[in-house]
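stage 2 :: seqdesign
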């Protein structure tokens, strides 16, 4: 391991500040250097967010989407997808079942589906909040007034991944959409008081280590509370179906650098990692991650929410118990709190015993 690499890694772990040029060698690390990166990220994770792993129950309540993103199996032009929408009462019922399984956060996710008005979703949020849990929304771009209505209804967090911080690459992958409006939505969410999540895919066609470095600096500049980072997995019914999938090792290195640059953030060991590597979640937890998002979506909906191949695969009967065993296997514990992030200088929220950093 070269002295220059060791110096960059030490500076990242101590100051959480790097330039794009300094990030690139970390993303390119192999062998001993790569293991040192993972160890540093894991140490920063332990210092800033502790050994708790937050399990956040995911309900994918609609696979309709009015967008036509080139990489996504839910894209508007994919006529082979069996579309569905869950009734509001059914969404709440699934959330109750998740709470009974011990989940402290419920994540409501869909395609960009305006069929669900903010009024309808606000009622769903209000009912779920009565269960004493946090609510995360991942429903795409909406008007600022709609975001406000949902925040007033009790929504705690919002996940809106930008997928890439390169405006030109964003435009190629998202026909008819605006990168600048995406960023504007993230700014609205922060202004309204949400805990804001964003994130990027690793291995997108046209991406480079330099663009990945800019993705990481974007997440740091936005001071996100959560960053979803996972590998690109090509879906055969999309224009990118013939492309190569993202590399698991590179994805883990991006995740590790994210932990170094945004040490307070909640970082999931994603389902996409587990899809490409049977040990993907364990590797993610050892490389800086502290969140798992188990899927609560019931059949027949679960198998139809196929944003990439394998995403809708049937879940084993012991799925939820297996997730907890996985956490124990890597020497960690399942969190008992709702898991709000705490940035430097912030005061912890009521009911969350996360440590204050700063």
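stage 2 :: out
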């Amino acid at each position: 391991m070269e002295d220059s690499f060791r110096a960059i890694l030490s500076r990242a772990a101590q100051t959480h500040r790097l330039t794009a040029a300094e990030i690139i060698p970390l993303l390119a690390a192999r062998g001993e250097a790569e293991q040192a990166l993972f160890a540093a990220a894991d140490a920063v994770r332990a210092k800033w967010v502790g050994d708790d792993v937050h399990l956040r129950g995911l309900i994918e309540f609609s696979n309709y989407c009015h967008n036509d993103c080139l990489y996504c199996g839910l894209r508007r032009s994919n006529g082979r997808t069996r579309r569905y929408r869950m009734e509001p009462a059914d969404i709440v019922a699934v959330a109750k079942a998740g709470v009974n399984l011990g989940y402290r956060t419920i994540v409501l996710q869909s395609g960009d589906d305006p069929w669900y008005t903010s009024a309808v979703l606000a009622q769903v949020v209000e009912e779920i909040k009565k269960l004493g849990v946090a609510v995360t929304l991942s429903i795409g771009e909406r008007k600022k007034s709609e975001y406000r209505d949902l925040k007033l209804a009790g929504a705690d967090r919002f996940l809106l991944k930008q997928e890439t911080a390169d405006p030109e690459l964003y435009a190629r992958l998202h026909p008819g959409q605006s990168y600048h409006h995406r960023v504007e939505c993230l700014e609205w969410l922060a202004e309204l008081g949400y805990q804001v999540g964003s994130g990027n895919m690793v291995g997108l066609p046209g991406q480079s280590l330099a663009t990945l470095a800019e993705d990481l600096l974007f997440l740091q500049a936005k001071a996100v509370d959560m960053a979803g980072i996972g590998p690109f997995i090509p879906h055969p019914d999309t224009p990118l179906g013939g492309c190569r999938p993202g590399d698991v090792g590179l994805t883990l290195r991006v995740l590790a650098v994210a932990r170094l640059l945004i040490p307070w953030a909640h970082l999931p060991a994603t389902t996409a990692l587990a899809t490409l590597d049977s040990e993907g979640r364990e590797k993610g937890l050892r490389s800086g991650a502290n969140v798992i998002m188990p899927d609560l979506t019931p059949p027949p909906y679960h198998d139809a929410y196929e944003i990439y191949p394998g995403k809708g695969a049937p879940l084993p009967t012991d799925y939820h118990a297996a997730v907890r065993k996985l956490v124990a296997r890597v020497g960690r514990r399942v969190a008992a709190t709702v898991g709000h992030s705490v940035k430097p200088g912030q005061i912890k929220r009521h009911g969350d015993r996360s440590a204050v950093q700063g």
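stage 3 :: structure notes
- Residues 18-334 form a domain with the TIM Barrel fold (CATH 3.20.20.70).
- The longest helix spans residues 31-49.
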